Amino acid sequence: MTEIRVGVFGVSGKMGSQVVRAVGEAPGMTIVGGSDIREPRETIANAQVVVDFTHPDAVMDNIEWCLSRNLHMVIGTTGFTEERLARVRELCEEHPQVGVVVAANFSVGAVLMMKFAELAAPHFPSVEIVELHHPNKADAPSGTATTTAQRVAAARAAAGLGPVPDATVQDNGARGGVVDGIHVHGIRLQGLVAHQEVLLGTAGETLTIRHDSFDRASFMPGVVAGIRHVVRNPGLTLGIESIIGL
Ligand SMILES: NC(=O)C1=CN([C@@H]2O[C@H](COP(=O)(O)OP(=O)(O)OC[C@H]3O[C@@H](n4cnc5c(N)ncnc54)[C@H](OP(=O)(O)O)[C@@H]3O)[C@@H](O)[C@H]2O)C=CC1
Ligand SMILES: O=C(O)C1=N[C@H](C(=O)O)C[C@H](O)C1
Predict the structure, then answer these.
(1) Which ligand is nearest to the CA of 184?
(2) 159 is in which domain, residue-wise?
(3) Which CATH number belongs to the domain containing residue 91 in this structure?
(4) CB within 6 Å of ligand 2 — which residues?
(5) Residues 79 and 22 in one domain
(6) How many beta carbons lie within 10 A of that of residue 207, not counting itself?
(7) Are residues 210 and 112 in the same domain?
(8) Where are the beta strands (DSSP E) in 63-204?
(9) Where is the active site (predicted)?
(10) What is the ipTM score, two decimals?
């Protein structure tokens, strides 16, 4: 069997360097090149699958470059909006043989945390999200918190829940950001990697769902599964839920 040829955008970054190691250790795939912002992308033109862990400002241009060359992609870079996803869908339609995975979080624990939050959402009128990350992170709220809030909001709406109860009339920013009606609070602290709590409340009880990535190794099984997935599944796959059977 021929090995899947993998290239990495953001190869020297915190995630990119882990991807190089994980792909090197995974059977059936091999690294053929990588580039960072100041390096020519041509070093990875010979790849079949390109993994992108770069920067919200860089990822769309990388996607255009890869899809115009019919290269499959596994994308972990965050900062995706509906407009950005619409452009990725458009590109996938223009290149129907190409597979693309876009996932805000490749860790199995985080994917389960989002699923549990979605399951709990209809049963709790109150819900807020706290995401905690290392201080070098460019985007807030995190992609994971944004996705969680969107899924929780959709589950609440489907269950007929109204707005989250909140009497605040004077807010100098302490109530955080709001995604689809859900308050999201971002903490940036040295010593952290990637962590999230979903706090839910109803009469007389609360439920806290917490996930911690203490090491970026936590994202690697999901990335490797994504690489195997895109070579066999053309089109856009959002999140790794379907890939890992959730
Ligand atoms: N989906 C998931 O599971 C996860 C997603 N992420 C996301 O991945 C992204 C990267 O995170 P992280 O590795 O921590 O960040 P780092 O800053 O450590 O790494 C980013 C790397 O990308 C490089 N880079 C920037 N622009 C380009 C470009 N145009 N082409 C190629 N390389 C480029 C940077 O180079 P230079 O330093 O020279 O600027 C750097 O080496 C973030 O958006 C983060 O949110 C992170 C963890 C998990
Ligand atoms: O920047 C990070 O580190 C992470 N980014 C992703 C996000 O924005 O959700 C995934 C994880 O939280 C780590």
Answers:
(1) 2
(2) 108-214
(3) 3.40.50.720
(4) 78, 104-105, 133, 137, 142-144, 194
(5) yes
(6) 15
(7) yes
(8) 72-75, 99-102, 126-133, 177-179, 182-188, 194-202
(9) 133 (proton donor/acceptor), 137 (proton donor)
(10) 0.97
50 and 73 in a single domain? The answer is yes
Same domain, 158 and 194: yes
Structure tokens at 240: 């790794």
Q: Are residues 55 and 132 in the same domain?
A: no
The residues carrying an active-site annotation are 133, 137
User: Are both 207 and 224 inside the same structural domain?
Assistant: no
Atom of ligand 2 nearest to the CA of 138: 1
Which positions ≥6 away from 66 have C-beta within 8 Å?
Answer: 50, 52, 72, 73
What string of pLDDT tens digits covers the 246 residues of the chain? 799 999 999 999 999 999 999 999 999 999 999 999 888 888 898 999 999 999 999 999 999 999 999 999 999 999 999 999 999 999 999 999 999 999 999 999 999 999 999 999 999 999 999 999 999 999 999 999 999 999 999 999 999 999 999 999 999 999 999 999 999 999 999 999 999 999 999 999 999 999 999 999 999 999 999 999 999 999 999 999 999 998
Q: Indicate whether this model's pTM tops 0.95.
A: yes
Give me the number of domains the chain comprises. 2
